[in-house]
Amino acid sequence: MCYVAVFDLGPSITCDSDYIEFFDFDVVTKVESFRTKYCGGDVPAVYEGVSAHVVVRYTSSVHNGGTGWVLHFMGKVPGTQIFGLPLLWRPRGIRRFIGHL
Fold it and tell me: Which of 24, 47, 68, 81 is disulfide-compatible with 33, CB 3.0–4.6 A?
């Protein structure tokens, strides 16, 4: 599960160059399956993947006037407690983070 605590990518008019995408990731086939995309002005929903693997792709440009974003990864295995890993990102350019929950 991913929860976006802070999300500011600037104005929505830069959606072609400033956005964050979520993909489910199959570790056996190494295939990413697109799930959703968020741009400036959007309010991201809690993302629940179909497996324990997710790819978050952040794309940004020099036109990004936002302050950035904070993303929390959380996972739950039956019979265990929930754990989380915060991920903060502000740099410009294409970034990729594969989280294993």
Answer: 24
Task: From 62, 21, 61, select the one nearest 39 (Cα to Cα).
Answer: 21
Give 30-70 pLDDT, tens digit per residue.
999 999 999 989 999 888 877 778 889 999 888 777 888 88
Q: Which two tokens stand for residue 21?
A: 């995408």
Give the whole-angstrom CA distance, residue 40 versus residue 54: 21
Give the tokens for residue 4.
Answer: 């976006």
Where along the chain do its domains lie? 2-100
DSSP type of residue 80: S
Distances (CA, A) of 86 to 41, 47, 79, 91: 22, 14, 23, 16
